[in-house]
Design a protein that fits this description.
This protein has an eight-stranded antiparallel barrel. It has two helices and eleven strands. It has a single domain, classed as Beta Barrel (Lipocalin), CATH 2.40.128.110. Helix content is about 10%, strand content about 55%. With about 190 residues, the protein is mainly beta.
C-alpha cells in the first residue's frame, strides 16, 4: 500500500497523467458531413460526403489536451444527382483526381461551456489550407448493443468556397456553404 501511494505521488510530481485520454474512431456508417449552398439565390441544394475516417482523442481531465484528425474522400460527394455529382468531382470544383481528400487536423480544443467546445484546426479543401474554428456540442457517450462505447458530437459552420479556390459559377452558386457535422465514434479499448 505504501509503495502504491509512493508510486502515485511520484507520477504526479513528474507530471505524468494517471489516466490516459480515450481514443475514438469515427464510425462512417453513423456519421455525416453534409452541406447546403444557395442556387440562383432562391433555393438551397444539399449534399453530403459518404466516406470519412478519423480519430478523436478525448481527455476528460483536461479537454484542452483533446484532438481531432479527420479525412474525407472528396469523390464520395453525393447530392442525389448523378450528373451534378460528376461535375462536382471535376476540375471545375473538387478536382478529385488531383486532390482526393479534404482534411481537418485540430491544433486546439477549448471548452466554452458545459458540453460546448471550440475546436480550432487546419482545414484543407481543394488543396488550400485555412485555420478555422468549429463550434462543437459534445453529446456524451452511450453503450451500444454490441457492448462498445460510443461518443457523439455535433457541429455547424459556414465557409466561403472561394477562400478555397472553388469559384465556378459566381452568382449561380452561392459563395457561402453551410456545413453540418454529426459524428458518432467508437471507443478504442486499451490493451
Amino acid at each position: 500500500m505504501r509503495f502504491a501511494k509512493s508510486l502515485i505521488t511520484a507520477l504526479v510530481l513528474l507530471g505524468l497523467p494517471l489516466f490516459a485520454a480515450d481514443t475514438y474512431k469515427i464510425d462512417p456508417v453513423h456519421s455525416e458531413v453534409s452541406f447546403k449552398v444557395r442556387h440562383l439565390g432562391i433555393s438551397k441544394v444539399s449534399g453530403r460526403f459518404t466516406k470519412l475516417q478519423g480519430t478523436i482523442l478525448v481527455d476528460e481531465l483536461d479537454l484542452s489536451k483533446s484532438s481531432v484528425d479527420v479525412t474525407i474522400e472528396a469523390a464520395s460527394i453525393n447530392t442525389d444527382s448523378e450528373g451534378r455529382d460528376k461535375h462536382l468531382k471535376s476540375a471545375d470544383f473538387f478536382d478529385v483526381e488531383k486532390i482526393p481528400t479534404l482534411t481537418f487536423k485540430s491544433v486546439a480544443v477549448k471548452e466554452v461551456a458545459k458540453g460546448k467546445l471550440e475546436v480550432t484546426g487546419d482545414f484543407t479543401m481543394h488543396g488550400v489550407t485555412k485555420r478555422i474554428v468549429i463550434p462543437i456540442t459534445n453529446l456524451g457517450t452511450a453503450k451500444s448493443p454490441f457492448n462498445d462505447v460510443r461518443a457523439g458530437f455535433e457541429g455547424a459552420l459556414t465557409l466561403n468556397r472561394g477562400d478555397y479556390g472553388i469559384k465556378t459559377f459566381p452568382g449561380v452558386i452561392g459563395e457561402q456553404v453551410e456545413i453540418t457535422l454529426g459524428i458518432e465514434a467508437v471507443k478504442v479499448e486499451k490493451k
